Amino acid sequence: MKNTIYFIVTLLILSCKLKKENKEITNNDKLINSIDSIINANFSSTEPGAAVIITKKGKEIYKNGVGLANLNLNVAMNSEMIFRIGSITKQFTAVSILMLQEEGRLSINDNIRKHLPTYPKHEQIITIENLLTHTSGIPDFLGFPEALKIEQMNLTTNQIVGIFKDKPLEFNPGEQIKYSNSGYNVLGAIVEEVSGMSYENFIETKIFQKLNMKSSFYDHPEEIVKNKISGYTKDSLGYKSASYMTMCAPFSAGGLRSSISDLAIWNKAIHNGELIPLKSLSKAFKPFKLKNGTYTDYGFGWMIHDFLGEKLYHHSGSIPGFRNSAFYFPKEEIYIAILSNNFSSKPSYLNNIISSVVFNKNIKKPVEIWDKQELKKLFPNLYKKITLN
After folding, report:
1. Candidates 3.40.1010.10, 3.20.20.70, 3.40.710.10, 3.30.830.10; CATH matching 24-386
2. CA angle, 193 as apex, 189 and 197 as ends, to 5°?
3. Most distant CA atoms of the chain, gap in Å
4. Would you give the distance in Å from CA 71 to the centre of its chain?
5. Helices (H), 282-327
6. CB-side exposure of 228: number of CA atoms within 13 Å?
7. Which of 261, 370, 257 has the alpha carbon at shortest distance from 322?
8. DSSP 233-288
9. What average pLDDT score do residues 338-349 get?
10. Most C-beta atoms within 10 A of its C-beta, which of 45, 105, 179, 358?
């Protein structure tokens, strides 16, 4: 009887305590629980997963890893894992160019032949700014029939540029916008020519080391690095390791690796003016004006949109085995990065959803990832799924 009374009293005390704790749950707790629910609903504990970070004014408010980092060894994902970041690399390349401009070693208005005199002379001048904004007309080598073969070759910078430099331009520079990894590889060649350093050494010494980004580097598949993880693709038979790439062809358009924590450091440093003055950086976040007077939605390495009533700078990254998305809302200083080693994942879609939760706003129109064909293929029901009434 005594034990029974003690048990009942204990339950009552616990019940009162729980009620009190529930009343004191903060908005931040609710936000974390909501984001956990979204992430866990989209990544299984037995499949390749993702790492997610959210910061506000440079301070971390959410960080988590879900799913598996390695399927063979059943290694769980954690927030310190290092991913291929794909086209998020373009931000680093663009800032490298702006750093060299700040030093007076080039101008974004320069004809690219000023720094690469062996580049073919076209009827119209291609400027460095055309490369930065995808308005050069240089065809994207990833669309070439031999692209898969190219990705498995060990190539020098000259050989990389040689893949596409003699191809005719798809349009006159500045008249249209068309995403071009080739253009960003030319930017890498310019970084090397102007700085006298390899692109890899420039990025690692001038950016990664300076910002203490210890989990970021130019990727070499054969190198063993702690927390460096593999990527996976999925077919009708299930998951398999992503196809081998030398990472020579992605180069300055997509050859880097990083972690969510390092990307948060990067984002904070950029917007604090730690690498170049904010005045010099500002053009990177302005849409490019085409010759017909219309504006694009791309600056220098960042897409620019209005989303949820907020200005948004963002970019996705897609490379065999990995899909990534990074959103930054400058007014509220909110950064959301999602890195996944599952090529079947939908980080850009999830970033739409997570952003709506963070801002507590309904999505009227989702932000699209760059490649509209890829969007259609990956998320055929995107608009239907995330339009919240």
Report:
1. 3.40.710.10
2. 95
3. 97
4. 24
5. none
6. 16
7. 257
8. EEETTEEEEPPP--STTTHHHH-EEE-HHHHHHHHHHHHTTSSS-HHHHGGGGSPP
9. 95
10. 358
Q: How far apart are CA 228 and CA 320, in angstroms?
A: 15
Q: Which residues contact 316 (CB under 8 A, 6 or more apart)?
A: 86, 87, 88, 323, 324, 325, 326, 347, 348, 369, 370
What is the distance between the terminal CA atoms of the chain, rounded to a whole angstrom?
Answer: 56
Distance between CA 259 and CA 137 in Å, rounded?
A: 33
Give dist(CA 269, CA 262) in Å, integer: 10
Choose among 154, 143, 134: nearest CA to 94. 134
Helix (H, G, I), strand (E, B) or coil at 323: strand
Domain boundaries, the chain: 24-386
Residue 367: predicted pLDDT: 83
Whole-prediction pTM value?
0.88
Rounded-to-integer distance, Cα 320 and Cα 336, Å: 22
- For the chain, the residue count is 389
- Residue-wise pLDDT for 42-78, tens only, equals 999 999 999 999 999 999 999 999 999 999 999 999 9
